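Our consortium's second objective concerns turning raw sequence data into structural hypotheses that experimental partners can test. To show how far this objective has progressed, the report includes one record in full. It was chosen at random from the queue rather than selected for favorable results. The single chain below, 278 residues long, was entered without modification.
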Amino acid sequence: MKKLVLTGAAGRLGSYLREPLAKMCDTLVSTDIVDDIGTLYDGETYAKGDLASLDDMMRVLEGADMVVHMGAYADEGPFEKLLGPNFVGAYNIWEAAYQRGLKRVVYGSSIHAVGMHPKTDFIDTEVRHRPDTFYGLAKCFAEDLGSMYWDKRGLESVHMRILSCAQVTNARALGSWLSYDDLIQLTQRSIETPVTGFSVVYGVSNNDRAPVDNSKASFLGYRPKDNAEQFADKILAETGPLDSQDKGHMCHGGPFASVELGNSGVATMNIVDDTKKI
């Protein structure tokens, strides 16, 4: 592959994708809104760009084969705050990809697109959208956008519906954890699979307690290797009784399912910032 583009390259998940993606192509163009992302990997270049600007996305996607779209405002917030980067940004990626003749968009979607489904439901990739926040609503929008651009314009997309890609620090993560190695594998399979059409796959590791059914996405060849059960004894020993009336414990979206619309979900979570440094 000649050229890949990675949006959200300055983010935590983007930091783990940069090196393996750079090895898959002649040129990796990493992009974000920061001035620079420091030391670059072999074959990697950096282009500052604003997702809310179609002109910027047209510029960074020129000559690309595919784009891995991980850029977004990565939390719940007022609708107006998410409108530019998350809603308009998704449109700009798909429209620029179409105009530039890309084959596929690989998108960092989220469990929050279906976050209000109860965890007692073993949901598959065809379950109806049931967003838990404006953030989740933006993921629904991008998934539907991808479906429409495939049906109407023949632009493929794989929507990696990530559950939780961070260190395991709570009981929910025993089921929802996606390790960084499995994130890399999932992204690589989403790029390498010859034909995907419009596809949705859950981004989750091989956890004993995984609450979702990924079988309909098996054609991608994604076979996660890590299992959060290794953390279970420690986490459960530290966890007190959970409130069965709290939607944050009972719904797939976790804390995002219980916060008021517009209020941060990340603020209620103990996410360790282990952004990869070169």
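The partners drew two points from this record. The chain has one domain: 3-268. Residues 3-268 form a domain with the Rossmann fold fold (CATH 3.40.50.720). Both points have been shared with the crystallography group to help prioritize constructs.
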